[in-house]
């Protein structure tokens, strides 16, 4: 059961976490539709939107993907996987770099929307590993010119994971690299 929260955007951002433990309860089509709408609301260079999404809920496909992706073993328990794909020929300047950047923004929107809906999600990388990309392409019939960027397991979290405070003032520069505030 989807739980829409009353969190503001900054709270959702601060409370987003990488969820690897799931209850097994399916997220549901309505929730997945909301995640995909959030993904497609992401910014993209010259508004080209070079993204495509493959939603996988078939248990056999999830098992196969989990078996071939070393960091996606939780996929079966999550119950849904969203593969975010980049199509360079549809990006600004037909640029692979812009396609990847744009699809990274869409992926982050999925992760944030999952948090806002009370769901769990985690980015599991496929790109830039050629073997992993070829494996996902083969399993999901993805054309060679399409880049499978990541696979995002989505489901109901067990509540084991907690958000981390990653803020570190040492990573901030003012005015120039060596400048002080």
Description:
With about 180 residues, the chain is of the alpha+beta class. The protein is about 35% helix and about 15% strand. It is built from six helices and five strands; from the N terminus they run H-H-E-H-H-E-H-E-E-H-E. The protein has helices spanning about 10-15, 30-40, 60-70, 75-80, 95-115, 130-140; strands spanning about 50-55, 80-85, 120, 125, 145-155. Strands 1, 2, 3, 4 and 5 form a five-stranded antiparallel sheet that branches. Helix 1 crosses helix 5 and helix 2 (about 30-40) packs across helix 5. The chain starts with 8 loop residues before the first helix and ends in a 26-residue tail after the last strand. The mean pLDDT is about 95.
Features:
single chain, 181 residues, alpha+beta, 5-stranded antiparallel sheet
């Amino acid at each position: 059961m989807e739980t829409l929260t009353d969190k503001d955007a900054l709270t959702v951002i601060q409370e987003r976490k990488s969820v690897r433990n799931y209850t097994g309860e399916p997220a549901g089509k309505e929730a997945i539709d909301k995640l995909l709408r959030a993904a497609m609301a992401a910014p993209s260079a010259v508004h080209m939107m070079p993204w495509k999404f493959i939603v996988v809920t078939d248990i056999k496909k999830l098992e196969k993907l989990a078996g071939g992706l070393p960091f996606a073993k939780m996929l079966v328990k999550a119950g849904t996987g969203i593969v975010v794909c980049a199509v360079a020929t549809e990006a600004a300047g037909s640029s692979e770099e812009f396609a990847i950047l744009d699809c990274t923004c869409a992926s982050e929107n999925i992760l944030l929307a999952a948090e806002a809906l009370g769901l769990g999600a985690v980015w599991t990388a496929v790109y830039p590993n050629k073997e992993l990309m070829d494996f996902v392409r083969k399993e999901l019939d993805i054309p060679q010119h399409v880049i499978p960027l990541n696979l995002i397991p989505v489901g109901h979290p067990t509540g084991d994971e907690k958000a981390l405070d990653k803020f570190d003032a040492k990573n901030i520069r003012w005015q120039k690299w060596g400048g002080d505030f």
